[in-house]
Automatic annotation (TrEMBL):
This is ABC transporter ATP-binding protein. Residues 6-230 form the ABC transporter domain. It comes from Demequina zhanjiangensis. SUPFAM superfamilies: P-loop containing nucleoside triphosphate hydrolases (SSF52540). It comes from the Bacteria. Belongs to the ABC transporter superfamily.
Length: 296
């Protein structure tokens, strides 16, 4: 599969006074899964809908290997999208896909193929109204796959999935990218997609805050020390010298930006009884939150 390079260049979208997306630029590369991450209202959906020609941007453009969505001769063969799904509850999963097959330029037989690919073959004849949230997510993905695209654009695909569903979705997009496809997916939780994505693009308040391979986020994680003591009052007194320190519970304090040596020395000087002293890297979720909070 030859996935297109998805390039977002200077994308701006204004709704009246609201600048929903402000000069956003980034790329999603073939053979990789790019996570588009940001809190609610950050501008993710607006960006993805603009990519698919569903919203007219105020400025800028999104291209698939150099062509805008509207210039693609057979868009469904290039990019498959799973945005907010709108299903008719009275229709079966198969009928839902059959109404879309002509638009994607594929025969009806393709509907059963994609249902099998997402593990919905047995539910094909059931009404969508009776589907679980996880089954709807799978049906949304099946819809995206109808035209046998080389790129997938997925808005919050893990939303509402149970752990088994998340594992399944992760394996699916990883194998799609491993075959050369391009995947751009959004999420408001880094932890939800940490094991799925190769690259991360962080957006907050309509602006890009960070873009890099996921591995580079680790370099931004500052060290922190976890200190445990049965003497709650003494522990609180000691850590009050670090304004960022947090009590995780009554016997455990987390002190960002410190080393074990530093905290150990302070505890020793204060004659605090210590039951645990560990230095660790800040979690990636904390790094991500810091990036989005700094934007607030
Ligand atoms: N049709 C619209 N009219 C006016 N404002 C809008 C419209 N659509 C989105 N917005 C605003 O644009 C901003 C970005 O919204 P968007 O839905 O793109 O964010 P998001 O990152 O996808 O968030 P969520 O995860 O909550 O869907 C928000 O402030 C939102 O209120």
């Amino acid at each position: 599969m030859d996935g297109p390079r998805i390039e977002v260049a200077g994308l701006t979208k204004r709704y009246g006074d609201v600048l929903a997306v402000d000069a956003v630029s980034f790329t999603a590369e073939p053979g990789r899964v790019t996570g588009f991450l940001g809190p609610n209202g950050a501008g993710k959906t607006t960006t993805l809908r603009s990519a698919l020609g569903l919203i007219a941007p105020t400025a800028g453009a999104i291209t698939f290997s150099g062509r805008r969505f509207s210039q693609l001769p057979r868009p469904a063969a290039v990019v498959g999208a799973h945005l907010e799904p709108a299903f008719h509850p009275g229709r079966t999963g198969r009928d839902h896909l059959r109404t879309l097959a002509p638009l994607a330029g594929v025969p009806d037989s393709r509907c059963d193929e994609v249902l099998a690919m997402v593990g919905l073959a047995d539910a094909a004849g059931r009404r969508v109204g009776g589907y679980s949230l996880g089954m709807r997510q799978r049906l949304g993905l099946a819809t995206a796959l109808l035209g046998d695209p080389a790129a997938l654009v997925l808005d919050e695909p893990a939303n509402g999935l149970d752990p088994a569903g998340i594992t399944w979705m992760r394996a699916f997009v990883r194998s799609f990218a491993a075959r050369g496809g391009t995947v751009l997916l959004s999420s408001h939780l880094l932890a939800e997609v940490e094991q799925t994505v190769d690259d991360v693009v962080v957006i907050a308040r309509g602006r890009i805050r960070h873009a890099s391979p996921l591995a580079d986020l680790h370099a931004l994680a500052s060290p922190e020390t976890v200190l445990r003591s049965p003497d709650e009052a003494g522990l609180r007194r000691l850590v009050s010298r670090w304004p960022d320190a947090l009590m995780e519970d009554s016997v455990t304090a987390v002190i960002p930006g410190t080393t074990a040596a530093e905290v150990g020395a302070a505890a020793h000087a204060a004659q605090l009884e210590v039951h645990g002293l560990t230095e660790r890297g800040e979690s990636l979720e904390r790094v991500f939150l810091r990036m989005t909070e700094e934007a607030a």
